[in-house]
Write a structure and sequence with these properties.
This protein is mainly α. The chain contains 13 helices and no strands. 78% of the residues lie in helices and 0% in strands.
């Protein structure tokens, strides 16, 4: 593949997309994992499919519809979670299923055939144009600025929201802003791995790193690096075996997670227990 990389622009674009996308996956994915919001992020991702279908029906850019549905679903889930905690799971399930159902209905009603529909479901990292790289850079900058500016508030909202409220932090507003960031990230990543696989890319690499790393800044940094390496390894595997790149990337991430989980379990078994039986706590910062 190294020889082909020097000759084919689409391969160069794919590698650039995977490296740039790893920033979003590592940072946003870490916050998704530590807040145990993988299911919520999955609901937002699947709701975006409704926006893709509506865009085809109206003749609008699919990314615009996906972004609108993603932000609306994120705000809707966030509002329900803030008011009725017990109803949040039902709201996520309803948005998850409703988004997919609406997408299928809108696409069926749209005239003609949707030729690149599969790329939104399963991704097409090899088809991402160079013009989209600027969008990845812009979203990376937004994500990094969001985390840097609101870092202490994010830590409080993630690990002790009640304490944050007593200190005057607007935890609910920060939570809603974070959900919107998840929606934007999902729309950005859907071109690379697709809506059906994007949640795996957000959740698996940070979950893998979390087995060994517990401080939040290090967790984000190592997750970004691991996501980029897994993405490139998956792309190489897809190129050599002539298989879908998005599925190959997720497969590599899954194999690495299983191996890391095995090593982590073995390390805990071999580690001598301390005298007082205390456990090492995760330190957020």
């Amino acid at each position: 593949m190294l020889t082909a990389l020097g000759h084919y622009v689409f391969l160069q674009n794919a590698v650039a997309v995977l490296v740039l996308g790893s920033v979003v996956c590592g940072v946003v994915g870490t916050l998704v994992v530590v807040n145990r919001l993988s299911t919520l992020a999955g609901g937002v991702a699947h709701a975006c499919f409704g926006g893709v279908g509506l865009s085809y029906l109206l003749g609008a850019p699919p990314a615009a519809g996906a972004l609108a549905f993603g932000l609306a679903s994120a705000l809707g889930i966030g509002a329900v979670s803030a008011r009725w905690r017990d109803a949040s799971d039902a709201a996520i399930a309803a948005i998850w299923a409703g988004g997919m159902a609406l997408g299928l209905i809108f696409i069926q009603l749209a005239p003609g055939y949707a030729p690149d529909l599969m790329s939104y479901l399963f991704g097409s990292v090899l088809a991402v144009p160079r013009a989209d790289l600027a969008l990845f850079v812009a979203v990376d900058a937004i994500v990094l600025a969001f985390v840097v500016i609101l870092y202490r508030s994010l830590v409080a909202a993630s690990f002790d929201p009640e304490f944050g409220r007593t200190r005057g932090m607007k935890s609910d507003a920060i939570f809603l802003a974070f959900l919107c960031l998840v929606g934007v990230s999902v729309v950005l990543l859907m071109r690379a791995v697709g809506l059906l696989l994007v949640i795996a890319l957000l959740a698996i690499p940070p979950s893998t790193v979390r087995i060994f790393v517990h401080r939040l800044p290090a967790l984000m940094a190592v997750s970004c690096l691991l996501t980029a390496l897994e993405g490139i390894a998956g792309l190489v595997l897809a190129w050599e075996l002539d298989i879908p790149a998005g599925a190959s990337i997720i497969l590599v991430a899954g194999v690495v997670y299983v191996a890391a989980a095995g090593l982590g379990r073995r390390g805990r078994r071999s580690r001598p227990s301390d005298g007082d039986g205390a456990r090492t706590a995760s330190v957020p910062a």
